[in-house]
Amino acid sequence: MNLRTSFPSLTAALILLAAAAGFASTAEDEAPAEKAGPKVEVPFHGNERCPIMDKPAKANKFVEKNGERVHVCCSKCRRLLKADFDKQYAVAYPEEKIVDLKNERCPIMGEEIDGDDTMLFQGYRIRLCCPGCEEKFRADPRKHLTLLLNPELVALNNERCPMMREEPTERDNFFVYDGVLIDTCCSDCPEMFAEDPEKALKEAGIDLQKVKTASGK
Predict the structure, then answer these.
(1) Which of 28, 158, 174, 181 has a Cα-to-Cα distance from 53 of 20 to 30 A?
(2) β-bridge mates for residue 183, sequence order
(3) How many C-beta neighbours within 10 Å does residue 132 have?
């Protein structure tokens, strides 16, 4: 081994390694820290895989019938789904995988259930206090299902969007933040709200702590 040439090479290598480590450390230090606190969540209770291609289904690719949605992986599959919805629905939500929620209270009226009225919705069997509540459930089904599956949540039931405050809220547009389900006017608003939740709540005049206290939950 030629020591005269090895030592300088080794020294140079160590210097390069130290510089690389320093650069990596600096990059980590400069990376924006994830904000602490509650997260904005948009619940999804649809089929996870496309019934046609058996690929991951997308939340924004679906066909709806009687309030129920079947999600697919692409626009081509959506066209095929429209032509044969009932068949693909059975693939997306097979009978043998139906989840019986056995809820003790009606998701619409909030009353204890003493009858046998039920409905099926996207792979769930839901108990109702009377047959008339099915139509009301299907009027805003994903919101009712989210509250049913997460009884600890409090529904704000706001009529105006917290982001576009002049706009009325729309069916199936909502998100969950800090234990409260908040309605919106469109699917873009949850992302806008997430940029600065506290500012959005303040400007909309919403006090989530008061909302939760008033609910008794």
Answers:
(1) 174
(2) 174
(3) 12
